[in-house]
Design a protein that fits this description.
With 316 residues, the chain is of the alpha/beta class. The protein has helices at 12-27, 51-62, 83-91, 104-113, 128-142, 159-170, 188-201, 211-215, 236-243, 250-253, 276-279, 286-305, and strands at residues 40-45, 66-71, 96-100, 118-122, 150-154, 174-178, 204-208, 220-223, 261-264. The strands form 2 sheets. The protein has a 5-stranded parallel β-sheet with strand order 7-6-5-8-9. The chain has a 4-stranded parallel β-sheet with strand order 2-1-3-4, sandwiched between helices. The longest helix has 20 residues, at 286-305. The protein starts with 11 loop residues before the first helix and ends in an 11-residue tail after the last helix. The relative contact order is 0.18.
Length: 316
């Protein structure tokens, strides 16, 4: 496995390895401080970032490497150079590249033409690095055995909903996405991928349109902002109206399992997708979740640059 382009690229063994290593990095960030010594990692972002940028640069530094941050307007891509040419050039200077951008097709093309590992740090379709941080947090709270538990994403059927269903399916978990029907439901192709994987792993994938039914008995209620970067402002009024029943409140959290927790990939809009009482309350695990963006990206870089991830061929 050369690249991490999509959540579905990962096998169960890969995820277990990455989470075990990330847990070690959480305890000892400098455990492998020479792993990227005298090497550079390009971090290319066309979308603003807090957690992904800080996590990526810190992860590279903790592995002994030098991060090179590149904004979208700082490459010749903005003046017409092809993605393929850019991939070949960067491959001559860096040992890996982390990309945070809009189109999944751009990340896929970088992967095809680069000779170094390309890591998807977020696209409009997927967010594999976030899901690794999420599941490390879940394992710290509940352990690795997810049998009998339900894990629910609630809100916009966006890239986070897609990644949530896919990662849960790989892990053999019962995962739910509760969204409005119609325009803001998950992409049917992403749901089909998760269902295909779950059929082989023993997981269970559900897409519901009733937030209370989705929350009932869940070990996790997870949400994301309702207006993502790139969403047309012309859709704001209609979208927020459709999503308003999916706001995570104390009343919704009361329907979860007794030990249920709240999670959010951040940034958050208090009072919109989640109430302040929930996100700042005792059942919220958002800060540990955010911290694990670094530990999991560090684990990805460590194993991917060493050629130690096998990929999801066993699920295909």
């Amino acid at each position: 496995m050369k690249d991490l382009l999509r959540t579905e690229d990962l096998s169960r063994a890969d995820i277990d390895l990455l989470l075990d290593t990330a847990a070690d990095f959480a305890k000892n960030p400098l455990r492998s401080v020479a792993a990227l010594a005298h090497r550079t990692v390009a971090i290319y972002m066309t979308k603003p970032s807090t957690r992904t940028r800080l996590a990526s640069e810190t992860a590279v530094a903790h592995l002994g490497g030098t991060p090179i941050f590149i904004r979208g307007d700082e490459l010749q891509i903005g003046r017409g150079e092809t993605i393929a040419d850019t991939a070949r050039v960067i491959s001559g200077f860096a040992s890996a590249m982390i990309v945070r951008t809009f189109a999944q097709a751009d990340v896929d093309e970088l992967g095809r033409h680069a000779t170094i590992p390309i890591i998807n740090g977020l696209t409009d379709s997927d967010h594999p690095t976030q899901l690794l941080a999420d599941w490390l947090t879940i394992r710290e709270v509940f352990g690795a055995d997810v049998s009998g538990r339900k894990f629910t994403y609630i809100g916009d059927g966006n890239n986070m909903a897609h990644a949530w269903l896919t990662m849960g399916a790989i892990l053999g978990a019962h995962v739910v996405a509760a969204t409005p029907s119609g325009d803001w439901a998950p992409d049917p192709a992403a749901v089909a991928t998760a269902e295909r994987i779950a059929a082989k792993t023993g997981g269970k994938v559900e897409v519901l349109h009733d937030p209370e039914a989705a929350a009932k008995g869940s070990s996790v209620l997870y949400t994301d902002v309702w207006m993502s970067m790139g969403d047309p402002e012309s859709e704001r009024t209609a979208k927020l109206k459709a999503l308003s029943p999916f706001k995570v409140t104390n009343e919704l959290m009361a329907l979860t399992a007794p030990d249920g927790i709240f999670m959010h990939c951040l940034p958050a809009h208090r009072g919109e997708e989640v109430s302040a009482e929930v996100i700042d309350g005792p059942r919220s695990h958002i800060w540990r979740e955010a911290y694990h963006r670094r530990t999991t990206i560090q684990a990805i870089l460590y194993h991917l640059t060493r050629g130690e991830l096998q990929g999801s061929a066993l699920l295909s």
